[in-house]
Specification:
With 81 residues, this protein is mainly α. The chain has one domain. It starts with a helix and ends in a 9-residue tail after the last helix. The relative contact order is 0.10.
Length: 81
């Protein structure tokens, strides 16, 4: 993870610690979610950049979009992408 990304994640964690209703478990869960999303986005971009043609790039985009929909629908199984 890059320096700027880690700085952002740390900043979000500090802000959340100042929210009175947030407990440590919620903060940790959210931080883990953000870290998984960052990793998934990075993997998506790397795969997209390595696509051999338009059809493969489109397939990669569809797979990523579907994984994000599953995540949003609560179907997270441990792998974001």
């Amino acid at each position: 993870m890059g320096f700027a990304t880690q700085t952002y994640i740390d900043m979000v964690e500090r802000i959340m610690r100042n929210v009175q209703s947030a407990n440590q478990e919620q903060i940790s869960t959210f931080k883990e979610y953000i870290e998984r999303q960052v990793a998934a986005n990075r993997e998506f971009i790397e795969r997209l950049l390595r696509a051999k043609d338009f059809q493969e790039a489109l397939r990669i985009q569809v797979e990523y979009f579907q994984s994000q929909l599953r995540l949003a629908a609560g179907g997270f199984t441990g792998r974001v992408f």
